Structures are given as structure tokens and as C-alpha cells.
Amino acid sequence: MTRQDPPPPAGGGCRNAPILRQRGQHEVFCGLTGIIWLHRKMPDAFFLVVGSRTCAHLLQSAAGVMIFAEPRFGTAILEETDLAGLADAQEELEREVARLLSRRPDIRRLFLVGSCPSEVIKLDLARAAERLSARHGPAVRVLNYSGSGIETTFTEGEDACLAAMVPDLPETQDRQLLVVGALPDVVEDQALALLDQLGIGPVRVLPARRAGGDLGIGPGTRFALTQPFLGDTHAALERRGAQHVPAPIPFGEEGTTAWLRAVAREFQVDPDRFDAVTEAPRARARRAIAQAAGPLKGRSAFFFPDSQLEIPLARFLARECGMDPLEVSAPYIHKGIVGPDMDLLPPVPVLAEGQDVEKQLDRCRAARPDLTICGLGLANPLEAEGLATKWSIELVFTPVHFYEQAGDLAALFARPLRRRDALQFEAAP
What we know:
By secondary structure, this protein is α/β, with parallel strands linked by helices.
């Protein structure tokens, strides 16, 4: 029996809705933080941040590095003489890299990560990466990207990293599916298992857990994104001849099914087989969401721009959890990526790109939403004003994609409201 998908929103979605363009003061977390999940995803990679002591302190405090563990990232600290251009920082960097690789023979991919624009750090890291790769290759491939918080939101660190990897991948003519976006290993394994049951293959993943292997790119490559913030990676793959499979981001039962269905259509999977493979996990996901989302139904939500997950998450909360989004803001709105989610998102009073934080705070205070999704810098002040908040950064570090995590995703949003309801009950006379 063919299962019916939920109908599209009566208002026709938000793809063609007017967008409020905000270009004022904004609150974002540093793009260097992408290293925290990327270094776990690629165990043979090392991320060497070229930056200040402030950058080193940020990474250590944000990652919670244990003193007995040697992580796969570090900081080449620029002193005052380096920043002033009085020292030969290129030679010093090459010495540090040689020392690092001699001590860590397990490294196969070395990323030089700029913490600031090259005009600030007085180093051309792209040219440095080319020289170092020629010197230490083919055993070690040296790449570079910018993780500067001046230039990026915190999730764009991953985008810059993956985009830097694409030009270096070999050419292939094979017809294949490339799943793009860093996912926890357990979630990635679940997705690959579903694709295998559907008979889709070969399937590759970017970023691959190990360097080398058989990952290549070419005109036969079809790629599906699991994260909405991969705009530069999307463009880099298309420049290599790969073709994007547009689909909603796989959040919740509906988003996961739509993502899988788009891929299945591209690879001509029989509809009966699709229904047979997805029926049981869809049912589990619906039950898990229903169990977790009770406090969300009928409540309002307000999204500050932070992670670029905002539009797919608003779609999930509105259509699968019964919430009412009052404002949905994202740092950037790339319709080539989030357009399918916008088609499903019911019309919202305000759809915004960018940020003018003071004006948006005024709108949030006036709306008094039941739940505000925002960055760390805004959460505590808003909590002090009596607004329940959810840290958007938590949604990047927590497994939330695909069927088996659908209930956990709903629970992440329900938890602040459960806590708020419990506190109000205890305070009642």
C-alpha cells in the first residue's frame, strides 16, 4: 500500500514570499568552531589554526579538551612581530608543520585554517598549502581554508573546509551518489543502510572518514546535501560537473522521506520498494515525534539567524510538531538548497535574511514567543527577560538527522518548554 505524504501548505509555502533583508549589527559565533566536529569526523586529519592566543583559547574552551588527550587540532600562534610583518612567518610555519608531521605520522590530511583574513595575519595560506603539499605529499595532502569569524558564521567553517577538498578530488565518470555534510558516524551509517536497502549505489560521503579511497567527482556524480549551510561546497561540486539533487534537509519523518524520495527518483527506484523500505522507520519516527512534541503543539517559535538550519527546522516544527513560527531568520537564504524546505514551510509573518540584532530583539520582545531559538550570546539575556530559549549551536552538535533521531530532535525543542512549565507550576501558590 502506498503511504500518502502530508499535503503542501495551503498558502503555497514560502519560496516566493517577501524576504526582509537585514544588514545591521549581527551576533555570530566563530567559524573556527566547525573544527570541533570535523576533527572527530576525519580521524586521519589535523587542523592547524594560524591565529592568535585568543583563537587557541576559544578552541580549547569550546571543545573542552582533556589535558590527557592529544586532539587533532592545534594553533600556530602569531606574535606581534608576525602580525607586524617583521618576522618570516612562512619559514616558521613550515618548521612547525614539519615538526608536527614528524611527531604525528598518522596524519594524512592537514588543513591550514586562517583565523583572520590574510591581510591581517600577513600570510598567504593558499600558497603555503601548495608548497607544503608538494614537500610532504603524496603521503600528506595539505589544504587551507578560512575559519574567520569576521567573514563567516560558525557553520560556514564546515562549508569552507569541504569546499577546499573538492578541487583536490580525482575525476571519475562513474554514476554515483555523493552524500554531502558531516554527520555523526551512527547517523551516517543509518542513512547509508537505508540507501543500500533502496538499491542505490555506489554511495560516497563527503567528508570521507579516511583519506584516499575511491572518492572521485565527475559528470556522473549526483549529490544530496544533509546540511543547509553548504553553499560554497554546492558551487564547488557543480564546477566539477556534479549535479545537485534538490530535497528538503532530512529533519523529521517528513523531511527524511522527502530527501530519500528525491534521491530514489533520481536513481529510478521502484515506488513499491521505496514504500517497503521506508514504512517501518517512518512509523517509528512518527511515534517518537508524537511522544516528544506534546509541549510544542500550539506554541509559537521565533528564530534568530545563527546556524543556517533555521528554515528546515521551522518547517519541521510547523508541520510535524504543530508549532507556529512567528519569525524565521537565517544568515543567508540559498534557495537552491533550502528552496524545497521553503515549499513546505507554511507562510510566516516574517521571513528574514541577515540580521540587525537590536531591531530583531525589539520584534522578539513584542511578539513574546513561547520559544526563541538563538545563539549563545542572546540566550541568557532573553532568559532573564522571561523568554524560554534553545541554543541553536546545540542542534549542530547533537545527532538530529534522519528517521531514528526524529524524536530526539522534537525533544530538544520541547525540553525548554517542559522546564518552563515545571518552574511555573512550582512557583504557583
